[in-house]
Amino acid sequence: MSLPADELIAEQLAFKISGFVITPQISILIVLSFGVLFLLLSTLPFFKVDFSRINRTPGKKDIFQQ
To answer: Of 17, 26, 32, 35, which has the fewest beta carbons less than 10 angstroms from its beta carbon?
Structure first.
């Protein structure tokens, strides 16, 4: 798939943290997992919102005529 872990560490393309090697493939998984986490955290509050209670008055009022 890619170079051995020792070569990746020597080329500074991978990091060794307390015996665990973070390769580029693992870093992509970490970034994607953070993206999914933030997507879930940003969309979950909208399930509790009741948009049917929003007051939609007929007429053309702009934001300054309220």
So the answer is: 17
